[in-house]
Amino acid sequence: MEASSVSTRRTDDGHAADPTAGATRVSFVPSPLADPGPLGLAAFALTTFVLSFFNAGLVNSGGEPVVFGLALAYGGVAQFLAGMWEFRTGNTFGAVAFSSYGAFWLSFWAYVQFYADKVPEAQAGHAVGLYLIGWGIFTTYMFVASLRTTAAVAGVFFLLAITFFLLGIGDAGAHTGITKLGGWFGLAAAFVAWYASFAGVANATFGRVVLPVRPLQR
Q: 81, 109, 187, 201: which could form a disulfide with 52 (CB 3.0–4.6 Å)?
């Protein structure tokens, strides 16, 4: 067998030299993550805004399918990803909120596309009403937690909780007036969420407070 062609370097006293001596040491410094909050808020705001226009009866319901692609791509996938990035930043509240509402829009899209026609027509209102009221309960306890974030975020959750309950009651009892009222509250929630998103982007970009969000006392 031939001897290895790689020779071992030795010091003057005959000992093997350190093979790493003189080597360049590379240290990895992770890059900072951008704040995913404005993305999550913007995705929630736009999707809620468009659907709420139909719920409030401001546009003909025949155009409602335009919401479905938005619910899948922006309100669903983009918002869910914002929630995953919030886990990386260590923000428990943001992670739970964006992941959950991203999943809400994905489940809304999936229900309309694959399951709505499997629910008996006489039971559809009750089923959707239960679904929305369940989300209202979740949003209510998230509103309580939001009281230690900012006034803007707390305002979103306050309005959204009312929206879910009104839409749920409206669907469960076939009360079109209550559903329309829920649509108006949804529009209000969307505008507040847009403000909070705009503030996050503007304040980070300018490096100072351009739009106040009023942090709440911890």
A: 187
